[in-house]
Amino acid sequence: MSVENGEVLYSQVLTSGYHVATINDFMEIAQRAGYMIIDRSAMHPTMKALEG
Description:
The chain has about 50 residues and is an alpha+beta fold. It has a domain at about 15-50. About 40% of the residues lie in helices and about 15% in strands. About 0% of the residues are buried.
């Protein structure tokens, strides 16, 4: 579903092949799989240093 300014722009009926999760659910799944969630702004100094 796409919503803009409180108005539904697009929706689709979900079939058994789809999964729905919140962003918090996704982050928890990623962290349990060993990924680290880092905000892009926190990585900027590191990336700049690696670029030389």
